[in-house]
Amino acid sequence: MAIRGVFSSSLHLDHELLRRGYGLSFGECLDLIARKYGTFLLHRFLGRGPSHLESLSSCFHFLDGFGPASLQRIVCGTGFFREVLAKGGSVLDVGANIGHFAYVCHHLLGAGRHLN
Fold first, then answer.
1. SS3 29
2. Phi, then psi, of 53 in degrees rounded to 5
3. Sign of the alpha-carbon dihedral angle for 65, 20, 24, 28
């Protein structure tokens, strides 16, 4: 049952990404979704897979097969930030992860400065 819930949530994110775009072209959306499922399947069934993802004109590193899904969730969560961040505004990122949010702030939200 837990797998079904995760899959359903993932499909919902796919739908939102394709419908809203969040600053990405339709082709970039499809590429991210295809790579998300491809990476997950390689890790799940072969026990290995790429530890990086080249998509959205950048290279992202992650530790497991859920990395691309994490990137997609961050991209889909930019709606709020688009409303409150002025174009060229500054963002203070207090997280300590692997750079997905930094990429989104700079490239998709147009932040002039990103401090982490």
1. helix
2. -135, 120
3. positive
